[in-house]
């Protein structure tokens, strides 16, 4: 049976391993990861795990014993350095080489670094891994001051948790609203309000100049107008970059991620790319790009495993995402690609509503806050091209099932 090598041991890799065995692959599987932990789920890092409410093992995609019983070789705490496609080998940092019949690249992504003076000071942190949370938790005591740079989902989730732990929290966002890259002005405004009500100092259109330090440790953020915001810790959450260097150096096609086809295959038929590092097609939306979500990591892990095992591709699920902040459980179904109408259904003040995104009257996506029923209904509509009546949609008394015209 074929010898399978997987680079990167995160959510996508963990799913691929489980699916390979499930689809009947009997041959050797080796999983290489540069972190010490086996594949784990990252979402709780900015939520319950950051708060100290979950033990590390609860994050694992599969318990450690799974890899032993399934005869999967784990090589953790070590990174792969180069890929030589001609002789189908990967060279590790210690110089050893591993060969493969099929290779799966699941190297994920890394946080962007801040291109300003002082970004390398102690206390300037990012939030991607278990090790990052450990560093952040050192500062997580009441009264400490945290400045979060970047108001994406991760930055805002961390801000919410830090506030709940009693820290003084400032969020600096360069664009004119929070979550600008991922959602509508309606949702952005809502989150800005909730954060402010919870005592977070949210500053949008913020122009920062650099980070101030005492020689070794960060002490504050210097703004373009000369103002200095004091900080004991600075969390940088300004997006991620795909870990595609090794693939690119080996001549695999990459454009913002490693290009893949419908089977998660790269331009080398023996090499697959899955998860955050992959550039894929989402047929329902005519979209090509990277998706940074658990749904995508799991789906691509299954697709690659099915292809390797010669099984039919699994049925594609609608793209979806979630975010937890305070009492708000946000669930997004679909992709907000170029909507021209946003219809609010429900009660924003009561924190129970959804925003339906339409394009030319056709359903595109939903952001649902504390209304899982709306999310479920919307998920079923993804890809249907359904035309929805905005007035009926906005009426909570109307049955969502009857809205499809
Ligand atoms: P990863 O999980 O990043 O795994 C890749 C692994 O490969 C890493 O361990 C990396 O260190 C390793 N690696 C890289 N290069 C090498 C190499 N050369 N050799 C060996 N190992 C290597 N998604 C949601 O849908 N909902 C959420 O609420 C949500 N919250 C999130 C909160 C946080 C704090 C973070 C960081 C992410 C969140 N995400 C969320 C996104 C989601 O976790 C990612 O999309 C998912 O983890 C991607 O899985 P992956 O396997 O592609 O990459």
Automatic annotation (TrEMBL):
Keywords from UniProt, A to Z, are: Dioxygenase, FAD, Flavoprotein, Oxidoreductase
Looking at the record's lineage, which domain of life comes first? Bacteria
Q: Which Gene3D superfamilies match?
A: 3.30.390.30, FAD/NAD(P)-binding domain (3.50.50.60)
Entries under SUPFAM superfamilies matching the protein? FAD/NAD(P)-binding domain, FAD/NAD-linked reductases, dimerisation (C-terminal) domain
Q: Which cofactor does it need?
A: FAD
Q: Where is the FAD/NAD(P)-binding domain?
A: 3-301
Q: Where is the Reductase C-terminal domain?
A: 320-404
The GO terms this record gives for MF are: dioxygenase activity; oxidoreductase activity, acting on NAD(P)H
Q: Which PANTHER family match?
A: APOPTOSIS-INDUCING FACTOR 1, RIESKE DOMAIN-CONTAINING PROTEIN-RELATED
Full protein name = 3-phenylpropionate/trans-cinnamate dioxygenase ferredoxin reductase subunit
Which species expresses this protein natively?
Celeribacter neptunius
